[in-house]
Amino acid sequence: MKFTLVLLFSLVYSGLVSGIEYYSDTYDNIDVDAIINSDRLLNQYVNCILDKGPCTADGRSIKHILPEAIATKCERCNDKQKQVARKVSNHLKKHRPNTWTEFLEIYDPDKKYIASYEQFLTQA
Question: What single Pfam family name could you report for this chain, choosing any that match (predicted)?
Answer without folding.
Answer: OS-D
